[in-house]
Amino acid sequence: MKAPPPTALIAEDEPVLARVLSRELARLWPSLQIKAIVHDGEAAIEAARQHLPDILFMDIQMPERNGLDAVEDIIDDWPTDRAAPLVVFVTAFDRFAIDAFERAAMDYVLKPVEPQRLTLTCERLKSRLLERQGNDAVAHAPWHALRRPPSQEPPLTMIQAGIGSTLHMIATADIHYLEADSKYVRVVTQDRSLLIRTPLRELMPRLDERQFTQIHRSIVVCTPLIDKVVREDAGKIYLHLKGRSERLIVSRSYAHLFKPM
């Protein structure tokens, strides 16, 4: 079956620049469907929830919410059974590049956008979308759908964390939670916090699903330690673990796990 045409959202606080970008995309990529053009970060979040576009073209400095924070909220709330959008930041400032790529940006384009540069971006996006058609179901499945088959190795009981020339052994039974932190994963126990290089997505299928629960794209907690879940007036949901003072945010994608019985 033929794949549906790709879709996109443009978030740009300058209406003239938004129209120029839309017009150039129509010329370079006629099959791309622009589902919405918005002019601030909050509107981008709402439009992304409504349309679930394949691609986000995001300005960074916008009213209400900047593009970096808006993308974080969009990804946090993205349906777990659908591939996350490819993100292209289009901005006049190069100083945000590191922050952008830490948010898994596909590309970072400086204004004024040159047609040749935008052509390259479109080719990169087309190539990535084609790759997804073959492996999307596996590459973007929620971690609890990637459970180990019975024939594979058993769940991890120890995790190794290297600090300098010293190798620390962490029993998974001692882990309170794991949190993705830039290029690392922070492993938190009762009395220490260590960083490991294994990405959270690779680590999660090897954890015992009876012992760990994902509450956010970047946070996995020890299930028996869950004490309470608090929903604030603004709609944010936070989880508290037994014996710990910090509160951990629960994204909307996982809020259904904590409904009252």
Return the average pLDDT rounded to an integer: 86
Query: Please, how many domains?
Result: 2
Round the Cα radius of gyration to an integer and report it: 20 Å
The CATH homologous superfamily name of the largest domain equals Response regulator
Task: Bin the helical content.
Answer: 25-40%
Number of helix segments?
6
Largest sheet: 5 strands, parallel
Strand content: 25-35%
Modified residues (4-aspartylphosphate): 59
Domain Response regulatory: 7-126
Pfam families: LytTR, Response_reg
Domain HTH LytTR-type: 159-261
In short:
Pfam families: LytTR, Response_reg. The chain has about 260 residues and is α/β, with parallel strands linked by helices.
